[in-house]
Every structure is written in structure tokens, then in C-alpha cells.
């Protein structure tokens, strides 16, 4: 097929997209640990939820494990960006292991908030998804039973605290902004005095990427989200796009793209979750260019300037 006979397709690129400051920091921690201490460096849980990132770090010498007892005591271990229960660093110290904590500072902020509420004697509600490593890590900052997980508005409507006047909430950082607002509204309707975070827990990167998707989805027939299926923020982007009226597909990379999804489409949106590298976005644009006469337009929702310091031992 000649270039001129390819159907036209406008690609709207959502900005911001892809790596956030917490993900960038976590990946740098693994890379620098390998450079400083040599391979292998162990990583407890996927450093971030992206298959391509994990595979690249494996090729450099990272070994990914689920639990600390899979690590030898004489090699460094990195804790993932999602955060870990307090018992994990305690176990590492007991085994005299060298550990590097890649927990995103914005997740650490939620841990600190939960601790303050606990010290103040409040019953704590965590809005989040059961089993997600960030939720496991946040709940693991405090004794069993100190934090109650709420996943839905229905959960909020049946939650029965010991003292309705002494309740606080915190949230997972990668939730749907709109869904979370509904849950918070349900809690506030029942517990007007509920203590809230000073600054909302859903992180700037999650919020900005969802806002950008809303702008792009409003102009697109189809929206492609680059990200892995176990990435909470990537899954939320696809949900936000569907709510905004676009057909949305979550794909790992260009190989996951089925061109038949775009039949009849004139405008396709493209974004990437906070743990997905930009090279995957460019790969999709190249793949689209094989079948369409592509023109690319960038849609700016917000400019991000956040950066986080590396641990002193690696800086």
C-alpha cells in the first residue's frame, strides 16, 4: 500500500504520560545499586508494575523475589516503589542485610499520616484495592486491625466504627480520582467529623494523567493506554477513558495493538501509565504509521516538575 493510500489518522498524545518522579527514582535506585555493588541486586516485589521495566532491570543483574527470605543475606535488596509493611525492614535489619528503600515519597507520606492518626487514637479507613502491594504496605505500618480497608461506596455505607466521631481516612495513591471522591463523599455524609489528609493522598501524577486522558478521550474514538495489567494507575486510565466516551484498550506494547480496533476511527488517543517507559509510546506510533497516514498532536494538561532525591548512599 502506498503512503498516500493509507487512511488518515490523528494521534492525540496525552501529556503528562509515562514515568512519574517516584517511578523514575525507584528505577534509578536499582540501576545505581547494581553499578555500586555489582550483580546480583535483589528486589522485593516488582520495583514498579511494568513488564518491560522489570525485564530490562533483570538484564542488568536485578533478581526479583516476592519475599525477603528468598534473598541471601550478603547481597543488597531493594524495596519496591509501592512500600512495604514495617515487618520487612525489621526482618532485613535482623538478618544484617543491606537494604535500599525505593518507596515513593508520596506513599511514605500516607504511611506517616496513618501513623499520626493511630497515635491520636483514631480509627483509620484506607480507601484502596485489596491485595495491592501499596495497600499491603500501608496497612502493615500499624498493628493488625488498626486500619480498615474500604474499596467501594457500598463498603463506606456499611462501615461501623467504634466511635463515629473519631475516624480518619487515607487513600492509596493510584486510585481513580472520581471514584475516590464518591467514596469520600459517602464517608463524609455519615461521619461529618472524619479527619482527612491535609493534602489529598492520590498523587499528583495519577491526578494529572487522568485529567490528560479526559481531555484526549473527549476528542478520540479510541484510546490506547500503554501499561501492564497489574499496574493500578494504568488500569484506572483505561477506566477514565471509557467513562469519558472513548473505547479504551490497555496494552503492554505495540505487539498488543490490534489494528482492527481502529476501524473507522479518525482520531486515536495514546497515553502511558506512570510506570510505562516512553519508548513504548513511540513504538505504538511507529506501528500505527505502518497502517495509517499518521499526524501527531500533543495535548498538554499539566507540566510536571517534581523530582525526588535518591538515598544518600547512592546519590
Structure description:
This protein has 315 residues and is α/β, with parallel strands linked by helices. The protein has three domains: 115 residues, 4-hydroxy-3-methylbut-2-enyl diphosphate reductase, catalytic domain (Cobalt-precorrin-4 Transmethylase, domain 1, 3-Layer(aba) Sandwich), CATH 3.40.1010.20; 81 residues, Rossmann fold (3-Layer(aba) Sandwich); 85 residues, 4-hydroxy-3-methylbut-2-enyl diphosphate reductase, catalytic domain (Cobalt-precorrin-4 Transmethylase, domain 1), CATH 3.40.1010.20. It is 37% helix and 19% strand. The chain has ten helices and twelve strands. The strands form three sheets. Strands 10-9-11-1-12 form a five-stranded parallel β-sheet, sandwiched between helices. α8 runs parallel beside α9. The model has no long low-confidence stretch (mean pLDDT 96).
Summarize the structure.
By secondary structure, the protein is of the alpha/beta class. Helix content is 37%, strand content 19%. The model has no long low-confidence stretch (mean pLDDT 96).
Topology:
Blueprint: E1 8-15, H1 21-37, E2 41-44, H2 51-60, E3 62-65, E4 77-79, H3 87-94, E5 99-101, H4 105-119, E6 123-127, H5 133-139, E7 147-150, H6 153-158, E8 167-171, H7 177-190, H8 204-217, E9 222-226, H9 232-243, E10 247-251, E11 267-272, H10 278-291, E12 293-300
Parallel strand pairs: 1-11, 1-12, 2-3, 2-4, 4-5, 6-7, 6-8, 9-10, 9-11
Amino acid at each position: 500500500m502506498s503512503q498516500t493510500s493509507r487512511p488518515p489518522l490523528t494521534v492525540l498524545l496525552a501529556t503528562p504520560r509515562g514515568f512519574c518522579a517516584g517511578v523514575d527514582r525507584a528505577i534509578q535506585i536499582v540501576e545505581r545499586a547494581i553499578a555500586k555493588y555489582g550483580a546480583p541486586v535483589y528486589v522485593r516485589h516488582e520495583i514498579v508494575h511494568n513488564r518491560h521495566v522489570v525485564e530490562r532491570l533483570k538484564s542488568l543483574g536485578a533478581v526479583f523475589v516476592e519475599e525477603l527470605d528468598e534473598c541471601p543475606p550478603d547481597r543488597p535488596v531493594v524495596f519496591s516503589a509501592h512500600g512495604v509493611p514495617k515487618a520487612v525492614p525489621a526482618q532485613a535489619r535482623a538478618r544484617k542485610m543491606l537494604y535500599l528503600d525505593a518507596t515513593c515519597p508520596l506513599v511514605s507520606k500516607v504511611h506517616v499520616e496513618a501513623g499520626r492518626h493511630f497515635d491520636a487514637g483514631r480509627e483509620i479507613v484506607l480507601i484502596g484495592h485489596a491485595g495491592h502491594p501499596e495497600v499491603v504496605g500501608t496497612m502493615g505500618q500499624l498493628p493488625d486491625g488498626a486500619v480498615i480497608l474500604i474499596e467501594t461506596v457500598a463498603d463506606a455505607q456499611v462501615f461501623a466504627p467504634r466511635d463515629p466521631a473519631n475516624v480518619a481516612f487515607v487513600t492509596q495513591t493510584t486510585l481513580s480520582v472520581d471514584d475516590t471522591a464518591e467514596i469520600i463523599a459517602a464517608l463524609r455524609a455519615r461521619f461529618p467529623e472524619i479527619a482527612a489528609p491535609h493534602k489529598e493522598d492520590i498523587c499528583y501524577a495519577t491526578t494529572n494523567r487522568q485529567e490528560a486522558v479526559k481531555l484526549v478521550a473527549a476528542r478520540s474514538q479510541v484510546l490506547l493506554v500503554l501499561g501492564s495489567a497489574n499496574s493500578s494507575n494504568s488500569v484506572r486510565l483505561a477506566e477514565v477513558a471509557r467513562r469519558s466516551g472513548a473505547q479504551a484498550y490497555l496494552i503492554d506494547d505495540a505487539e498488543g495493538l490490534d489494528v482492527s480496533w481502529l476501524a473507522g476511527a479518525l482520531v486515536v488517543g495514546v497515553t502511558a501509565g506512570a510506570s510505562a517507559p516512553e519508548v513504548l509510546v513511540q513504538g505504538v506510533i511507529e506501528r500505527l504509521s505502518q497502517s495509517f497516514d499518521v499526524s501527531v498532536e500533543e495535548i498538554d494538561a499539566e507540566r510536571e516538575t517534581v523530582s525526588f532525591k535518591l538515598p544518600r548512599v547512592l546519590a
